[in-house]
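Lab channel / #folding
Pinned by the channel admin:
"Please post every new chain as: sequence first, then the structure tokens as a reply. Keep commentary short and put observations after the output so the thread stays searchable."

First post following the new format, from NK:
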Amino acid sequence: MAPAKILVVDDDPAIRNLIHRFLTKQGYQMESAEDGKGALAVFEQFNPDLVILDVNLPDANGYNLCQEMQSRTGVFVLMLTSRTDEADKIRGFSQGADDYITKPFSLGELGVRVGAILKRQRIVTTAEQQCLAFDKLVIDPVRREVKLNEDIVPLTALEFDLLHFLASHPGRVWRRAELIQEVWDYEYVGDQRVVDVHIGQIRKKIEIDTSQPALIQTVRGVGYKFEAPNIAKQASPAP
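Reply from TO:
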């Protein structure tokens, strides 16, 4: 399997070069950029699997750049910032970021975060390749597509993973900590409201009435469950 491709975007040359060298030694294929304009140019040519993106760039807002990149390819994004305010993290997650790490950080922690994100690209088993069909909602894990009434639902990579996981276990109630462990794939240290943010984003895209969600339901005091409108039908993925 070809090594994963990672683009690191940071205007601080010391941090940028440190990350670049460290992840190169870990076997990843690396490119870097120092500003938003350069990042988009490299992004188009390089087509990375993951972008490590600084929030504060001289010519761009990292949150906006995250959305721009994900609208093009659904790339994974790890936000990098010196901000420690939880509200900033929630904002980052709400705009599509897959993870968030604050400066200063250890290279060991960075390596774990990167590995956990990229593990979502693993080859799925035959059972996991089955489309999940719930009335007018169809989830295709091979194409990583969700359709509602035959229309494509634009989900970020993490939103897809979270929806697919919940829909694969209809009726089961999951605590936030369990969802973080299953979907984020490591022990996330931080505010578990990150789950609420992603659930809210998914609901906006698939629920008829977000104030009374029918598919992803809140179980007060516990967490969330996916409630199928009828028994899930499984079908082979489209050729």
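NK: The radius of gyration is 18 Å.
TO: also worth noting, The first strand starts at residue 5 and ends at 9.
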